[in-house]
Amino acid sequence: MSIKERMSGNEAVAYAMKQVEPDVMAAFPITPSTEIPQYFSKYLADGQVDTEFIAVESEHSAMSACMGAAASGARATTATSSAGLAYMWEILYVVSASRLPVVMAVVNRALSGPININNDHSDTMGARDSGWIQLYSESNQEAYDNYIQAYSIAEATRLPVMVCQDGFITSHGVSNIELLEDEVVKSFVGTYEPDNYMLKENSPMMAGPFATIPYYMEIKRAQAEAMNTSYNSIENIAKEFAKISGRGCSFFEEFMMEDADCAIVILSSSAGTAKEAVKSLRQEGKRVGLIKLRVFRPFPGKIIADTLKNIKTISVMDKAESFSGMGGPLYSDIKNALYETDEKPSIINYIYGLGGRDIKVEDFISIFNDMLNGTDTKDTYRYIGVRDKRDE
Amino acid sequence: MKMSINTKTPWQDITIGGEIYEPANSKNFSTGEWRRLKPIIDWDKCTQCLLCAPYCPDSSIPIKDKKRLEFDYDHCKGCGICENVCPVNAIKMVKEG
Questions:
Q1: B12-31 pLDDT, tens per residue?
Q2: Distance from C-alpha of A263 to C-alpha of B4, rounded to nearest angstrom
Q3: Where does the pLDDT of residue A376 fall: very low under 50, low under 70, confident under 90, or very high at 90 and above?
Q4: Are the beta carbons of A294 and A251 closer than 8 angstroms?
Q5: Within a 10 A sphere around the Cβ of B12, how many other Cβ atoms?
Q6: Which residues of A touch B17 (CB under 8 A)?
Q7: How do residues B28-65 score in pLDDT, each as one tens digit?
Q8: I want to staple A66 with a disulfide (CB 3.0 to 4.6 A). Which of A76, A146, A208, A226 is the partner?
Q9: Rounded Cα–Cα distance for residues A282 and A276 (Å)
Q10: Which of B5, B7, B20 is facing A205, going by the closest CB pair?
Q11: Cis status, amide bond into A300, omega within 30 of 0
Q12: Residue B28: what pLDDT?
């Protein structure tokens, strides 16, 4: 029986953390993810969890503590945002290369500068090459569901997983949620029993060795293989989770994509806003749809290309600038995925929502109408929601 | 657990994350390949006082029957401490290669 509740995305993740009850939680507070360790500390103080909480002095130490704990054989987790994630950067790569199944809740916030505390995806997009699996969540419900599955994915693939949700929008917005029973969550994640770990009696082990020129490249190649072959685990775990919850998709959600001529590809909370635009245009008989990615790393390129290849025009929404001169990170990957298909849809990129800039249903309607009316397909790299002299 | 990883091991057989399951196995790996200066010993000058051996930070001066042997060039990093501490100037650092 599911439990109907109302809570914010931060509380939902902290609640999932309480139900999983990892061995170690190491965290340093940063807006807008501070509430996660705050709620969790209360569960600990109230004796509801038996986790070792390490109040570290920085995010660099938080991730280092997680690495040490995971190498020792413990289930380890943390939560962070923005500059906190940036401060973990060095250790993100060490954890993934050491193949340690650390799970991290990231509440997406713009990176400085200029300094800003609101939502965009520049923090985790910058970490997209760090060897972590990345799951993005549209709602508090998806953040809860993804966070629970993250442990199973991490332990099956031996890759760390970050579970992302939008700062303030879902992290602080309170909405309805269906929680699973404690026993159901505990039995879903099971007991963590790694084959080898540093505290294993009579089995000495060392993690994180210095790898000289003859070894480094082989270790990186094996790490790439772990990511390349993680699709099956992610898909199977999503299917298992659907059995206990009745919810979820494997790699991305297709919203009203049957017979669609134009589609938007998007991540996280703004998908909810864009779906309203899709519903309203569908009522007018317009053939529009939406793809919301849940899994961004590894990128589900082959299956997304298969879904998108017959669409005429696609608008890819990036909540992060990559300064590549060629558009945002999601756009680059979508375009890359479609290069191998015979049919070539026109693909437009919109940079939107930087530093918490709002995007509304009307904005998505105008994007769809532009596509439906035959947009200038040479002008592919656009901004929406920015004040522009040329629009006056 | 015994490990057999060497410079010929394909990526498929490398341990996960490069984990090492055997204590004190650095002797099985050549760790001195990046040495720039190499110590050479003049056996005519060497008095076998054995002062160099305990100073070597990489245990690369083997001793057998109370006598030092040739340098272990698989593990010597070429730091030059042995040259510095030798009281009879029997050790010289020369360029590698």
A1: 999 999 999 988 888 888 88
A2: 53
A3: confident
A4: yes
A5: 9
A6: 97-100, 158, 207-208, 219, 223
A7: 888 888 899 999 999 999 999 999 999 999 999 999 99
A8: A76
A9: 10
A10: B20
A11: no
A12: 83
CATH of A3-243, one of 3.40.50.970, 3.30.70.141, 3.90.79.10, 3.60.110.10: 3.40.50.970
As a CATH number, domain A252-391 is 3.40.50.920
Residue of chain A with shortest Cα separation from B21: A205
Report the pLDDT value the prediction gives residue B2, as an integer from 0 to 100: 63
Q: What is the mean pLDDT of residues A286-290?
A: 98
Reported ipTM: the value is 0.90
d(CA A352, CA A269): 13
> How far does Cα B38 stand from its chain's mean position?
10
pTM of the model: 0.94
CA distance A337 to chain B (A): 27
**Domain chopping of chain A, boundaries:** 3-243, 252-391
Contact status, residue A164 vs residue A106, Cβ threshold 8 Å: yes
Task: Give exposure, B73-86, as e/b (b: 16+ Cβ within 10 Å).
Answer: eebbbbbeebbeeb
A215 interaction partners in chain B (CB closer than 8 Å): 5, 7, 14, 18
Class of domain B11-95: alpha beta
